Amino acid sequence: MPTDLTEIQPTERRVDTLLRIDTESGDSHLLIVEAQSKKDVRKPAGWAYYVAHLREKYGIPPVLLVTCQDRHTAAWASQPFRIGPPQWPTLTLRALVLGPHNGPVITDPSAAARDIPLATLSAITHGRDQNAPAILKALAVALKTIDEETARIFAELTELGLGNAMAAETWRQLMSVDLSFFRSETSQRLRAEGRAEGRAEDVLLILDTRGIEVPEAARDRIASCTDLDELRTWLTRAVTAATADDLFTEPEA
Fold first, then answer.
1. What are the φ/ψ torsions at residue 211 (nearest 5 degrees)?
2. What is this structure's pTM?
3. Strand pairing category for 28-36 and 62-68
4. I need a surface site. Which of 25, 139, 217, 247 has the fewest CB within 10 A?
5. Full 3-state SS string of 137-181
6. Tens digits of residue pLDDT in 173-223
């Protein structure tokens, strides 16, 4: 077998969430958070790679935290995974597993605010429970009591942990109410729409200020456009355009 283990063709490998935890005593460790929705026999080898790679890269002890939303998956993920021949396993991987069997149900906003990391894990592990909406509402309220950067971390961790559970849509709706500290798919889309709307208004304002008549069809086309690059082009052309139609026509060289 070849002794050179260098990967010439890089393989993309991404953990769900990676956090560095610094304790008051001065110790540090890495927390690898993986959301697992079902049993996957290929996953333990990938987890072992994450642990070894991060230990080598940062020189900090890693902890693998696996969150599950059903007891069956949690029981599977809790077992020790041994890599190597049965008579002498070279590596034993043990994950810290949280699921509905050992995760608390936190529906009180004040309790969630006292321990936001635990409230986040409560939301993730009970994402398929009937209590999920109440847990998510409590967490959403609690996140408003801390600084935006920290809130963003836990909000994104929650969205990743919920995966494709129905509660994920509830969470996105809750977070879209306050877009200042959340970068979910929903909030990014809404902010992009807001930027497009503002740029369209700028285009029309320039044309109106310059006394350029804008037919109703052209006004509707500008106002309904959501392509920021195209709006930027129209904004540039609006400064020198003689008519509204000039916005949509490539100028001659």
1. 80, 20
2. 0.62
3. parallel
4. 25
5. HHHHHHHCCCCHHHHHHHHHHHHHHHCCCCHHHHHHHHHHCCHHH
6. 888 765 444 445 554 555 566 567 777 888 888 888 888 899 999 999 998
